[in-house]
Write a structure and sequence with these properties.
By secondary structure, the protein is α/β, with parallel strands linked by helices. The chain is built from 13 helices and ten strands. The protein has helices spanning 14-33, 66-79, 96-108, 122-130, 144-155, 162-169, 178-186, 205-216, 233-239, 277-291, 297-315, 340-345, 350-361, and strands at 39-42, 50-56, 89-92, 112-117, 134-138, 158-159, 196-200, 222-227, 271-274, 320-326.
Length: 369
């Protein structure tokens, strides 16, 4: 029994409370210093009456959509008392989340360890290390979960587990989440309520946030989730099978998973589309040329699915706006998606797919789904 008599008392360590307040202040100050990301309108005259917008998440301080998630995960961990002044931080990641988490760990003076597939792009590994993080590469990508959990136990640290906590760490009702930002930026456009928002799934956290927000605000917008060719998510949605697995690792870094992650909520999705990797990477290159800068493979997946929806709307004589995301910069994939040798090694015929998509966007031909 603690104390005397029937009354037991204990006090939290004062240093941890003071550290938590300071840590939250630093994270919030970082958010205030970062302006909201741009919403770009893509000029596509051939799609008369259908306006296409790109939410450019590559402009975050750590270069990707995952900056939002990392910030939320750190705030969630600190406010729940899991992250303290000397806590080693461990994450299982395909790269972008780890880059963003390494940034916040460095800001707070915490050691950071990323457990990743050995196939992760060298550019991402270098960026994690630049943020003073340590990378632990696992030959089998399916093993990152157990390896991260074991490493956290060994270090006496916290496994952030983005795949479980992504959907609960973000305030989906608002608080400047990505959905609220999109609708605020769209509010004065010709079609302010998008017909569709198109988003691919990695953890499933962003699609959960967008889908919940749409319902909470009673909006007519529908959510289409674009899945990578090798991923368990599509089967989970199409067949209602949360035990679905995929034996092959996704070739599109950041999206597609070998299992159905806890943060993936199929019930808030209106349509799901499995995009062949060849089509996704062709769309990535087409969009990069039209923007004048490189985007990543997940953005290509998003953009191809958006184009399919645009083609269907055009065929039906529908008008409206479509929104998708630029998830990260293509500069992280110089050794893979922008390497002709890597593309050839995968057996992809990108020029044929690019010509087909360019023809549609220029009004020279249909786009068959």
């Amino acid at each position: 029994m603690t104390g005397s008599g029937l009354l037991g008392e204990a006090a939290a360590h004062n240093d941890d409370g003071a550290w938590a307040r300071k840590a939250i202040e630093r994270i919030q100050n970082d958010q205030r210093r970062s302006a909201d990301t741009h919403l770009l309108r893509l000029d596509l005259p051939a799609l008369a009456g259908i306006d296409v917008y790109l939410k450019d998440e590559s402009t975050h301080p750590t270069g990707s959509l995952k900056h939002r998630l990392a910030r939320s995960l750190f705030l969630y961990g600190i406010c729940n008392g899991r992250i303290r002044h000397d806590t080693p931080i461990v994450e299982a990641s395909s790269g972008s989340t780890a880059i963003s988490e390494a940034y916040f760990a460095r800001m707070l003076g915490l050691p950071f360890h990323a457990v990743m597939s050995a196939a992760t792009s060298p550019e991402k590994i270098r960026e994690i290390e630049r943020q003073h993080g340590r990378c632990h590469l696992v030959a089998d990508g399916k093993g990152i979960y157990a390896a991260a959990e074991a490493l956290a136990t060994e270090l006496g640290g916290v496994y952030l587990d983005q795949f479980t906590h992504a959907e609960r760490a973000t305030d989906w009702r608002g608080n400047n989440n990505i959905a609220e930002s999109i609708f605020e930026q769209m509010s004065r456009e010709e079609h302010p309520v998008p017909a569709w928002i198109v988003m691919s799934a990695g953890t499933g956290g962003t699609t959960a946030t967008i889908g919940r927000y749409i319902r909470y605000k009673r909006l007519a917008t529908r959510l289409c989730v674009a899945d990578a060719e090798f991923s368990a998510f599509f089967e989970a949605y199409a067949a209602g099978n949360r035990t679905a697995t995929c034996d092959r690792a996704s070739r599109i870094e950041g999206i597609g998973r070998p299992r159905v992650e806890p943060s993936f909520l199929p019930q808030v999705i209106d349509r799901m589309m499995r995009v062949p990797d060849e089509a996704a990477l062709a769309a990535m290159r087409v969009l990069s040329r039209r923007l004048g800068r490189r985007v990543g493979g997940s953005t290509g997946t998003n953009f191809f699915a958006l184009c399919v929806i645009a083609a269907r709307m055009q065929a039906a004589g529908e008008r409206g706006s479509l929104v998708t995301l630029i998830c990260d910069s293509g500069e992280r994939y110089g050794h893979t998606y922008y390497s002709d040798d890597w593309i050839a090694g995968q057996g992809f015929d990108l020029p044929r797919q690019e010509d087909r998509l360019d023809a549609f966007l220029d009004g020279r031909g249909p786009l068959e789904a």
